[in-house]
Amino acid sequence: MPLKFLDHVNIRTARLSEMTAFYGEVLGLRPGARPPFEFDGAWLYCDDQAAIHLVEVPEAPRAGEPRIEHFAFRAVGLADFLAHLRGLDVAYRISLVPGLNLRQVNIHDPGGNHIEIAFAAEEEADLSNYPPTPRPARS
Predict the structure, then answer these.
(1) Domain range for residue 11?
(2) Is 134 a member of any domain?
(3) Residue 102 falls inside a structural domain
(4) What would the pLDDT profile of 60-115 be if each residue is shown by its tens digit?
(5) Quick check: is 17 in a domain?
(6) Residues whose CB is less than 8 angstroms from the CB of residue 96 and which lie 6 or more positions away in sequence, other chains included
(7) Looking at the whole model, is its pTM more than 0.90?
(8) Would residue 29 count as lying in a domain?
(9) Which long-range contacts (CB under 8 A, 24 or more apart) does 36-42 make?
């Protein structure tokens, strides 16, 4: 398996400043560098690792909606991992993190939970999404 370690947890919140203060005061995490995404948020660091990624949303998620948007792993072996997913017929989407040169493979487990697996940009692979077009809904 290409997984190396749990990288971060991504949490959606309408209370960005309160959440930032809470994680700072209670757990000692500190705000730090964050890529220039097109949405507001904060990255909170544990030592030198951005462990919690807060994403600001206009209103609090409703009951039943996820607050933890995804969890993420760092990994190696991008091409082999993508071939493995295709072999299992697991849909994925590739995205790039602006300014960090990371390639993210985004998948969902059977419960609908979003999982990000991040690889270094230097790894060569076909970055086409799988399947190439969205699948029709299953009934």
Answers:
(1) 3-120
(2) no
(3) yes
(4) 878 877 788 899 999 999 999 999 999 999 999 999 888 888 999 999 887 677 99
(5) yes
(6) 102, 103, 104, 121
(7) no
(8) yes
(9) 36/98, 36/99, 37/98, 40/16, 41/16, 42/16
